[in-house]
Design goal:
alpha+beta; globular; single chain; 194 residues; two-stranded parallel sheet; 13% helix
Length: 194
């Protein structure tokens, strides 16, 4: 029942709040190990969320894990979605722009080589550097329209405050799809020079 009402009862990405203001906060995230898949949403069942099942299969959230040793890996939060980086290998092609979906693996995996190797060649496990991000939190369903609105508002606030943006935004979603929309936790993260 707790997850339906928005309770987050899994390990979350580690960070420290460096600064808070009315419109956003600046966080310093610790390095982490991530599993990710890059794909064209128009060519995947599930659209923008089409990569979820590929990553869920890797950790064993939907059955037997598809990784070396079939090691079950605990689910964490948030699930992160971003526009694919230039030069990323896209597993499917279609009419849209590629996205990357990422699971942050549990902190017990200190380095990428500590995590089980994926059994699916579409999954990439890698070390993710920490860094500074401007973050705004919001509830409800993170549609493309709502996300674009939150990104634009955060970018304007950062520009107003003289904070230099260093990369594209990330969408972080903390709850499973069965969480009632008013109780969902979502965040927009924009990397900044801080």
């Amino acid at each position: 029942m707790g997850q339906v009402l928005g309770k987050i009862d899994v390990e979350t990405a580690r960070f420290e709040v460096a600064q808070s203001c009315e419109d956003y906060e600046i966080r310093r995230y610790a390095p982490a190990v991530v599993a990710e898949v890059t794909y064209d949403p128009s060519a995947m069942r599930g659209g923008r969320d089409g990569g979820f099942s590929v990553l869920a299969d890797y950790i064993g959230a939907l059955g037997k894990p598809k990784n070396a040793g079939t090691e079950k890996i605990a689910m964490t939060a948030p699930v992160i979605t971003a526009e694919a980086a230039a030069g990323a290998t896209v597993i499917t092609t279609g009419a849209g722009g590629a996205v990357t979906m990422r699971f942050v693996l549990p902190s017990k995996y200190g380095k990428a080589e500590d995590a089980p190797a994926p059994g699916d060649e579409r999954v990439v496990v890698r070390d993710e550097a920490g860094g500074a991000f401007a973050v705004v939190k919001f509830g409800g369903v993170a549609t493309e329209e709502v996300t674009a609105e939150k990104v634009e508002k955060l970018r304007r606030a950062l520009e107003r405050d003289g904070c230099r943006v260093t990369g594209p935004h990330l969408l972080a979603r903390y709850n499973p799809p069965w969480t009632l929309p008013p109780f969902r936790t979502n965040e927009i993260l924009i990397p900044v020079d801080f």
